[in-house]
Design brief:
The chain is mostly beta strands and about 775 residues long. The chain contains seven helices and 40 strands.
Length: about 775
């Protein structure tokens, strides 16, 4: 709930901003976007799009997707770790790690689809702009964009040599080093840009496992949880051998090796401590001790590589041809404590690998008068697997399994069982899902300006998917009901299945005045059928489940959006808003059943809402903005052919009903330079962390509403050679959680992850 102090601060900031004299110079810089495959001002695009350039990203301190989501209405990004993100647009979450399912949100980096969950988190450094497009966008960003897309565009090489280097320090022993070098290599023919970032920060949740305070003293020091350790580099080369021809190559690499995720039990307290998520945790025994079966201690090792070649040929003043080829691969291994406590109930890992390649050919036409559009073809293939090894003490897991996994138990019963005597006999199990998809697309889009003020856009994408899935499992666990189905680790494949779909869009765009436009956007999105290979969900009794192939029906969403965009007072005030309605059929969601993820289908789901953005720059010194979103998103029908599922009337996970953000920035000259001061605020109403919306062992799996403040101040010398920035995020040190339930929820030990506490620091940048 927003406090009176918060409301007073907001009102004071806005009142101060609005008190500046009217009619002064406009600071609202036009952002050019390419969401519709051509360069347009964001204000001219008849879509719900939020676009931020590098100046805004730097001034607010946006370096990752989670920070970005605080300033985009209708977007939520949750990062348990770089390996496990959740992207939510207008109520719908895209976060599956299964190799057999596709994403619902397309994440694009420099024109390439990077949506596969385990490789989609990239550092936002040396960025030209970020575009967030909401609603189904299959025509523009492929069939994975069933609820929207996020497009990240990197900075390009410069004609003259330039560079910058930054060094940052902060609390929790934060150390950041980043930079960029750019310029010509071979006259006007070949240019290059090299950018990099290296970031480290200790964890903000102490793990006492192995210490003198723990249940297992005498071990090595356990790493604190929720830290970061990331290195990323990008090389951009471009060449223009002819005036009409541009060749661009981009090589990208990212490595993440942070400590473990703070899945802290809400049932069994740390030794001498409590179950509060942001206080000390005791995740063990693999917090301090290495597991031979899991091959390490808690933490993540992830590598992502990408190689892209883009060729653009301007055939005439109206026609251009573009070809894009890419190869991308990721390799991640994350060990986590599923029960979130010192009990050796269930420790697990996720071993995920994947590679993809794609080729796209597109022709664009724009006569600058009546017609604009594009037509193209693409082929996209990805092949990967997700392996989940696990182990635990049978003296603990067997009674917990009987009381909490196969039945129901209370919080008190779960706590007693988790604290039970260990036998020293470890069970070991693993299961793997495999997936290979080849997608062929043919797409076209055309905009016709009927009059100077009225335009019609019609587009569509035909997509054909060829899919094959596989499954393997092995276990020495005695309770065969949860042994994942036994294959002795032999891979069992499905037949190859073929699916196709046509995904259209229609836009009516009318300029009411030279400053105001209204638009109607109708579109369809989908998530393709899932070829699910795994244990038979209908197996009963003590039988070992057979491995079966189940085709989960295609999920479709029909969307209608009515919006407007307006620039007033000589462009110093920008107001945008939209209202939307989305209807889902055969909504695909995941549940944990017998300790493994399974895809199920819900007959119907609906959501509707309102989003609004206001930006105001009354003078050259002041800039203010406010964003708001209200979304009603519910699962309408519990009529599912699955005894485990009953979601009727439930709210979607991770989606707040109300989200708000606002900011004010003031710039002034002093001390042979310029200062800028900024204050930013965002608020989220309560959220459920799981779609069943139900407590686990009597513990609510949700987070109440909260708000966060951040401050930033900077100084730039008149020479523009040096810049100093200081910042505080989560100024009031608000205590909140970013996720709850998790695998531990089905073990009688729901776990919660604490959100970041107050972070502060400074960064010095040298420009040359």
């Amino acid at each position: 709930m927003t406090t009176s102090r918060t409301r007073s601060l907001i009102c004071a900031a806005l009142a101060l901003a609005l008190s500046a004299p009217a009619g002064a110079q406009n600071l609202l810089e036009e952002v050019i976007v390419t969401a519709q495959k051509r360069a347009q001002s964001a204000g001219d695009v008849p879509l719900s799009i939020t676009a931020y350039n590098s100046d805004f990203l730097d001034s607010v301190g946006i370096e990752g997707f989670d920070r970005l989501s605080a300033f985009v209405p209708g977007l939520v990004v949750q990062e348990q770790s770089p390996n496990n993100p959740a992207f939510v647009i207008r109520g719908i979450t895209s976060d599956t790690g299964s190799a057999q399912r596709q994403s619902r949100v397309s994440i694009y980096q420099d024109g390439i689809d990077i949506s596969r969950s385990r490789s989609s988190v990239v550092e936002l450094y040396d960025i030209d702009r970020v575009e967030v497009i909401k609603g189904p966008q299959a025509t523009l960003f492929g069939s994975a964009a069933s609820v929207g897309a996020i497009s990240v565009i990197s900075n390009k090489p410069t004609d003259e040599f330039a560079g910058e280097m930054s060094l940052g320090l902060g609390n929790y022993d934060e150390r950041n080093f980043s930079g960029a070098l750019s310029g010509p290599i071979w006259g006007d023919t070949l240019r290059a840009r090299l950018a990099w970032v290296d970031k480290e920060r200790d964890g903000y949740v102490e793990n006492i496992d192995g210490s003198d305070r723990s249940a297992r003293p005498g071990g090595p020091d356990a790493d604190d949880l929720q830290g970061r350790d990331t290195f990323s580099a990008r090389l951009v080369l471009d060449s223009r051998p002819l005036d009409e021809l541009l060749i661009e190559a981009i090589l990208q690499y990212q490595e993440d090796s942070p400590p473990g995720t703070a899945f802290k039990s809400a049932v069994l307290p740390a030794s001498g401590g409590n179950t509060v998520p942001w206080d000390d945790a005791e995740l063990g025994p693999n917090g301090s001790r290495r597991s031979d079966w899991l091959k390490g201690r808690l933490g993540l090792d992830r590598e992502v590589e990408s190689y892209t070649l883009t060729v653009t040929y301007d055939a005439t003043d109206s026609w251009s041809l573009t070809g894009i080829g890419n190869y991308r691969e990721f390799d991640s291994y994350e060990i986590f404590d599923a029960d979130g406590s010192w009990s050796n109930l269930f420790q697990a890992a996720e071993d995920a690998e994947g590679d993809q390649w794609s080729v796209e050919l597109r022709a664009n036409y724009d006569d600058s008068e009546r017609w604009a559009g594009f037509v193209g073809v693409s082929v996209f293939e990805e092949d990967g697997y997700q392996r989940a090894p696990a182990e635990g003490d049978e003296g603990v897991v067997t009674p917990v399994a009987l009381a909490c996994i196969l039945a129901d138990c209370t919080q008190e019963q779960a706590a007693a069982l988790l604290a039970g005597a260990e036998s020293g006999d470890l069970f070991q199990a693993e299961f793997t899902n495999y997936g290979k998809t080849t997608s062929y697309s043919l797409y076209a889009d055309a905009t016709y300006n009927v009059t100077e003020r009225f335009a019609v856009t019609l587009g569509g994408r035909y997509v054909r998917d060829e899919k094959q899935s596989g499954y393997a499992a092995d276990s020495n666990f005695l309770l065969t009901q949860i042994n994942f189905g036994q294959t002795d680790n032999l891979r069992i494949n499905s037949d190859e299945e073929d699916f196709d779909a046509f995904l259209p869009r229609l836009i009516l765009d009318y300029d009411v005045t030279d400053q105001t436009k209204v638009y109607l956007n109708l579109g369809r999105g989908h998530s393709s059928e899932v070829v699910d290979v795994g244990p038979d969900p209908d197996a009963a009794g003590l039988e070992v489940p057979q491995i079966v192939t189940t085709i989960i029906p295609e999920e479709t969403v029909d969307s209608a959006e009515l919006g407007f965009k307006s620039q007033l007072f000589d462009g110093s005030l920008t107001v945008e808003g939209s209202t939307f309605y989305q209807l889902y059929n055969d909504f695909q969601t995941s549940i944990l059943d017998n300790l493994q993820e399974r895809t199920v289908s819900v007959d119907e789901a609906t959501m509707y809402g309102v989003e609004a953005t206001v930006s105001y720059a009354p003078t050259a010194a002041w800039y203010t903005f406010a964003n708001a979103a209200w979304i009603d998103a519910e699962l309408d029908s519990g009529d599912v052919d699955d005894p485990v599922v009953d979601f009727d009337g439930n709210r979607f996970r991770l989606q707040p009903e109300t989200s708000l953000s606002a900011g004010v920035r003031y710039t002034f000259a002093a001390l042979s330079g310029s200062f800028d001061l900024g204050a930013y605020w965002d608020y989220r109403s309560n959220v459920f962390f799981e779609e069943d919306n139900a407590p686990k062992v009597g513990i609510p799996i949700k987070q109440s509403g909260y708000d966060l403040w951040s401050l930033r101040a900077g100084y730039l010398a008149d020479s523009e050679r040096y810049r100093l920035q200081v910042y505080v995020n989560n100024l009031l040190d608000e205590e909140y959680t970013i996720d709850g339930g998790n695998t531990g929820g089905d073990l009688g030990s729901p776990t919660f992850i604490a959100g970041p506490p107050r972070f502060y620091g400074a960064e010095l940048t040298w420009f040359f």
